[in-house]
Amino acid sequence: MNEDLISILCDESWYYDQKGFNDVLFRKDGTGEIVFRGETTIMIATAFHWKVFSQSINQGANNYQKIPHVIGQLDIEMTITKRRLTRWKKLDELQLNEAYLTEDAFMPKTYTICLEKGSFLTPWAESNFKKFPSAPPRYALRLKFDKSPYPPRHELKNPEGGPEQVKVWDWKEFCNRELPEDQWVGPTFWNTNCIVQ
């Protein structure tokens, strides 16, 4: 892989589900954004600070492997802030971030993240695969955290309802770089029973 890990990680959103609903965005300047929202409620839409402690690149990874493979790993620290995002209008009028999170949610946390290259569905698409009227998009990159970048259950003031229903504290995988259909690898909606892919 020609790109370094920081370049791959940064400046494009990593999606848990449909674009723009629940995502994480890292920037090279050490800032980022994290969003958790449901159909009618935005609970977390905040900036964070982050830094890298260590990184390792899989020297055996290349652009020609068709099966999913690890391209590298980073150890990072993330600190969620109370600063609201500005990507949506009227966000200042909503209760979010500190209205839903305890003070512990704003403390620094360490993570090990793994970057993979392949052909991936978002975690949401994988769990809802049979409901799609057509094939969901696939992505070239997957970001895997050792633990969710969203605050754990005990750091939510009222985890019942939306967070409990979807278990946001278990969300550890995100995808990015949508692939054109001719580069999709793996089962599609209409050939999930196919023996040979």
Topology diagram in text:
Elements: H1 5-9, E1 14-15, E2 23-26, E3 31-37, E4 42-57, E5 69-84, E6 109-120, H2 123-127, E7 139-145, H3 162-166, E8 173-178
Antiparallel strand pairs: 1-2, 2-3, 3-4, 4-5, 5-6, 6-7, 7-8
In short:
With 197 residues, this protein is mainly beta. The protein has helices at 5-9, 123-127, 162-166; strands spanning 14-15, 23-26, 31-37, 42-57, 69-84, 109-120, 139-145, 173-178.
Structure in words:
With 197 residues, the protein is mainly beta. A hairpin with a 7-residue loop joins β1 and β2. Helix content is 8%, strand content 36%. It has one domain. The C terminus is likely disordered. It starts with a helix and ends in a 19-residue tail after the last strand. The protein has an 8-stranded antiparallel beta sheet. The protein has 3 helices and 8 strands.
Structural features:
single chain, 197 residues, mainly beta, eight-stranded antiparallel beta sheet, 3 helices, 36% strand
- What average pLDDT do the residues reach? 84
What is the count of structural domains?
1
Strand order of the largest sheet: 1-2-3-4-5-6-7-8
Give a quick account of the main beta sheet: strands, pairing sense, barrel closure: 8 strands, antiparallel
Strand element count: 8
